[in-house]
Amino acid sequence: MATTKTESQVQQWTNLAQQLRVDSIRCTTAAGSGHPTSSMSAADLMSVLMMNYLKYDFSNPQNPNNDHLIFSKGHASPLLYSMYKAAGAITDEELMTLRKFGSRLQGHPTPVLPWVDVATGSLGQGLPIGVGVALAGKYLDKLPYHIWVLLGDSEMAEGSIWEAFDHGLHYKLDNLIGILDCNRLGQRGETELGWNIDAYAARAKGFGWNAIEIDGHNYDEINNAYAQAAQTQGVPTLIIAKTIKGKGVSFLENASGWHGKSLNKDQEAQAMKELNPVRSQTFPVQKPAAGQLSPKAPKKALALPKYDAKNGAATRKAYGDTLVALGAANPDVVAMDGEVSNSTHADEFAKAYPDRYFEQYIAEQQLVAAAVGMSVRHKIPFASTFAAFFTRAYDFIRMASVSQANIRLVGSHAGVSIGQDGPSQMALEDLAMMRAVYGSTVLYPCDPNQTAQLTAAMAEHDGIVYMRTTREKTPTIYSSDDQFAVGGSKVLHQSEKDQATIVAVGITLHEALKAYDQLQSEGITVRVIDAYSVKPMDEETLLAAAQEAGNKILTVEDHWPEGGLGEAVMEVFSQRDGLMPEIVKLAVQGMPGSGTPDELLEEAGISAHHIMQAVKALVKHNQ
Amino acid sequence: MATTKTESQVQQWTNLAQQLRVDSIRCTTAAGSGHPTSSMSAADLMSVLMMNYLKYDFSNPQNPNNDHLIFSKGHASPLLYSMYKAAGAITDEELMTLRKFGSRLQGHPTPVLPWVDVATGSLGQGLPIGVGVALAGKYLDKLPYHIWVLLGDSEMAEGSIWEAFDHGLHYKLDNLIGILDCNRLGQRGETELGWNIDAYAARAKGFGWNAIEIDGHNYDEINNAYAQAAQTQGVPTLIIAKTIKGKGVSFLENASGWHGKSLNKDQEAQAMKELNPVRSQTFPVQKPAAGQLSPKAPKKALALPKYDAKNGAATRKAYGDTLVALGAANPDVVAMDGEVSNSTHADEFAKAYPDRYFEQYIAEQQLVAAAVGMSVRHKIPFASTFAAFFTRAYDFIRMASVSQANIRLVGSHAGVSIGQDGPSQMALEDLAMMRAVYGSTVLYPCDPNQTAQLTAAMAEHDGIVYMRTTREKTPTIYSSDDQFAVGGSKVLHQSEKDQATIVAVGITLHEALKAYDQLQSEGITVRVIDAYSVKPMDEETLLAAAQEAGNKILTVEDHWPEGGLGEAVMEVFSQRDGLMPEIVKLAVQGMPGSGTPDELLEEAGISAHHIMQAVKALVKHNQ
Predict the structure, then answer these.
(1) Nearest-neighbour CA in chain B from A59: distance (Å)
(2) Does the pLDDT of residue B2 top 70, yes or no?
(3) Mind listing the pLDDT tens digit for each residue in B539-593?
């Protein structure tokens, strides 16, 4: 197959490629928008891939032996959908629903379609996610499937692409093949490197990859490149294909002003004449051989670590301990970290289960992308770094939500309470960032036993689940028998005399408890709620507290004032009829520097002392 | 200087390097934390740089001719501060305040110190910001200063580093010199590439840089490398120095377990014996030659574009028009974009002022970093891309705030109202993300005349200023005489009969106006507020509205429910005594797909129709 060809084979490749071009034009013209020319440049590349190399069972997208085809250049979705039609997976009628309200065929691919692994359209994400799938294939599934990633030339400027190159080499991912559709023209003109495919090759080789330069419209060269890539061992391959944007239609070829633009009906008719269309042929795709998933250890009962009330422990430490317990119980649990595993305590898992731990070094985009790739292969990934550094991967987290990925992110060293290291290391916006992810769950424990239970809950919870942990050792206030769940809260102090409610979480919960004692000694009784499930929040408990405790609420958080605990609490009350309670929010008010945790909590205005003052002001008013 | 050396020169380099080591140990021991060993590996590199190559007027950090020294490996701050002491800029007494509460010498460098350009500590940021400073130096200031960036080996895994490599080559930044302190050991063990300095060189060369491999403790090699780098024309240089972590003290050299760890008093005493310390010598740094900044066009009066009420216009278009007007008025205004300038309309500026426009291609981290670098050199940078893609640069935006940078970010294509392109292109978390940046300003106009005024206001406003623009053409509802300012709002409908207030912004303001008309026709009168300044918000107008219009407020936004307009409005009321108003929030409720803007606004629950229903429910209640 690889190095021979017959006349009829070339004819078949041509037939398929031309059909893909025809359909890419037709569906975008029907939609009135979209990217036909970005599709046409890669039609020859995809024709040969689909006909001779891709192993995919369209009737069973969950077949573990399937190859994975990721369109990192998601705007070439018309090409992808045209391939689905050519494979017989969708009808021509459905193809013509592209970009219409309610259609599965969105402007950029999403897993609303069962053959799409992950949403793309934010450039530079397909390859790093491909690295994640390739890690699962090579080291966990141990199946010979390939991950084919179609790349655009513009997206090669994204740093995340080079994180993927770095990791592809490090993990020797010879099951990963990038196909660079170098059509020279970006959205607004020539790309940075234009048709300088040698420059792309130099970069890929500089990162240790096998690089193959070809004419992306020469079937022989395409075919040989795939054959060579599929046989390459020990390193990933990048095929760099020099292509022509709009290839196949004279007035579109290499023409400016045609990015992201559909043809009108007249232009379509003209194009059809040039393409001599074959519109409805089905081209069967080879199914993969029936390989067996690598045998896994059996599942066991989960034995959570327990923490003694006599000793404090940092929640980050409890996270690490629990991750090991989860690893023992469930062979699908995998972990990765951004070269700070001795701080996040993911290193405990790395030591216990080295074959299920994937170091991602200081590359947070790749860290999240690897987790998303693991999710594609139904692993249960936990990815950790300093909470502040997840900001580096926010676009990947946002897109993971569109991808319907199930990933667990754990950010340590939250807030000013980290102390001396200073503001660059302090997460003060992570709650806002993570709350504003569709369908996300946001947890923030204050205690090791609570952390253990919530970490276990994360493994069972779908979607984007985030947990914030604390650097400092804090008191153990819960017993290992206490129960904690997503959507729950804990009322720590409650009486009929409550004049107000303090809602705290994580490090500030301990400040709230100190404030409670002092207030109590001064004759002021308050309710104290640990709102450890920041999203979703325990509405019932908050509503009851407002009703029973003077309709006065104080929130306190180690976070900027915007988008965190306080606003989450207000959100609960805004969904109810009637006036909202009196709500006062304490949050970090100025840019912190270095100092001890206590000094910084005090300066930020979120210490026990500030809580006490704020409660006094709150209950004095209206008296 | 470059290629000769005398015995006494080597002795001087040694003296300075040993003093830097001694002081790096002393100040971290005094602090009880910090990174002495990461400082010691680079002490020889910095000694030669400081003594023979760095041109810096410590008495005048704002001298435009000064070189820029950026510690991308910010955790080596003890070394940087020890250099300041050696240069006579700070006293030994101040050095010993490292990491203490109130000290300027924080755990990682910040511009609280006048000689620090930008905050570092989130790895991988120093080099891309250095690219921004280098762009300013080569193309705007046209001064021969150099940008020296000290890099750690761990951070070479960050994709942002390779965005900087890409742009350094593209813009031929021969004034930019990276110094890679390859000490092999990261936080938790060996780095990905260890001492394989050839691998780093291959990557740098793959990206077209001049790469020089040296022994980082051989003064001759260090000196020759700097000399060669300073003379290199047309491309940037990376000096790859093989170094030993903890160099100079036997029990620290190349030893595991010493990352981010200070010595105790006994260990310090032992180290001092080995280093034969010279503790208080001052080593003068050469001042730069007195070059003149490139002459600029004179400032002119600003002539804002004006939009006719008869025609609608997209706010993104008004942004582009206004940017050109700002460019005409103020020669310090510069612009950059992430290869979507024909969508954001930054291309208008690029055409009008090509010498002040810097294309950053699809590399959003570099986009923001370039703006930060421009801010270091007192330019007025406007950086634009799709609002959704600023999520890619959130860590850079967060750190820009710590850096006290003055940058303007403009994100287009916000919300579901973009239509067919689908969720990957829709910013639905940008308001939350940008609100949660310390000292940020967040603007969201609904009209071209308003956009013009707010864009002009951005140029005058310090800090991180963000504007969200809309893809779709919207009606022009304001005249060019209307006034808009940061912190303002506009009441569009107001009467004594107001039963509730609708607070809307951007695209939903137009939906609110439609709803107003329909409600009015049904006998329900409401106040309508355009809260275009999302942060800071016009508290006075909101408080008055609550008081005068039934204490009932409806907010509506094209954004996820978390962290956006609705929560910003609640924030205003939470700062007041007494119960909060009844607040109902409309925001995007489900994951959108493709569709027309109207279909998607309706599906998201934020159309005029939904606003009307929500207002009716709000005013019916309590009647």
Answers:
(1) 24
(2) no
(3) 999 999 999 999 999 999 999 999 999 999 999 999 888 999 999 999 999 999 9
Q: Enumerate the residues of chain B whose CB falls inside 8 A of the CB of residue A591.
A: 401-402, 438-439
DSSP-assigned letters across all residues of B316-340: HHHHHHHHHHHHHH-TTEEEEESS-
Asked if B432 lies within 8 A of A106 by C-beta distance, the reply is no
Q: Which pLDDT score is estimated for B454?
A: 98
Tell me if the bond preceding B536 is cis, omega within 30° of 0: yes
d(CA B556, CA A161): 37
Give how far B434 is from chain A: nearest CA, Å: 9
Burial category of A375 from C-beta neighbours within 10 Å (exposed 0-12, middle 13-18, buried 19 and up):
buried
CA nearest neighbour of B528 among B518, B537, B515: B515
Q: For A364, name the nearest residue in chain B, comparing CA atoms only.
A: B158
- One of A364, A429, A557, A567 is an active-site residue; which one? A364
pLDDT in tens, A214-234: 999 999 999 999 999 999 999
Identify the pLDDT of residue B376: 98
The answer to whether A562 contacts B567, with C-beta atoms less than 8 Å apart, is yes
Q: How many CB pairs under 8 A join A and B?
A: 376
State the CB neighbour count (10 A cutoff) for residue A55. Answer: 16
| Residue A364 annotated to the active site | yes
For residue A153, the chain B residues in CB contact (below 8 A) are none
Of A107, A163, A422, the CB nearest to B594: A107
Strand B490-493 vs strand B526-530: parallel, antiparallel, or unpaired? Answer: antiparallel
Residue contact B101–A160, C-beta within 8 A: no
Structure tokens at B594: 């493709």
Confidence of residue B276 (pLDDT cuts 50, 70, 90): confident
Q: How far is A370 from chain B (nearest CA, A)?
A: 15
ipTM above 0.90, yes or no: yes
Report pLDDT for A3.
42
Fill in the DSSP letter of residue A273.
H
Query: Sorting pLDDT into bands at 50, 70 and 90, what band is A310?
Result: confident
CA distance A193 to A255: 17
Residue B139 is classified by DSSP as I
> What would you report as the CA-atom Rg of chain A, rounded to the nearest whole angstrom?
28
